[in-house]
Sequence to fold (145 residues):
Amino acid sequence: MFIGEGPGAEEDRQGLPFVGPAGELLTKIIEAIGLTREEVYIANIVKCRPPQNRDPHEDEAAACRSFLERQVEFVRPRVIVALGRVAAQNLLDSKAPLGRLRGNWHSFKGVPVRATYHPAALLRNASWKRPTWEDMQVVRDRLRE
Ligand code: URA
Ligand code: URA
Fold:
């Protein structure tokens, strides 16, 4: 299961997660570890688009929390990948920077969680692609166990 931040403009139009430019890159990331989009579940911390794509506020994330928890309970994913700082901090209830949340296994409702960069961030800064690939290899290895 991949968890992002919240719908962007295209996601808001279609009512589906990660169907815009960041979604195209996410599809490639998923396929790079030998999976297809049909084999993974994709969700967001907040279910409505924050105006001007600002970070979701704490009360907004809190309002969507029970939906996210039920998505995880229904899907029962083997691994969760938190995409970006907002997803990682919300999921792990932490204020630590992404750089500190990356590189270790965490847990959400008993499901192992790995944090990595958000695909939209990779579109802005290609130097984060290599560490993201390293994170995804760790995820792939875990799924092979
Ligand atoms: N960015 C996100 O965090 N989620 C989406 O669904 C699309 C872009
Ligand atoms: N499939 C997904 O991967 N995510 C949804 O939110 C709905 C269907």
About this structure: The first helix runs from residue 9 to 14.
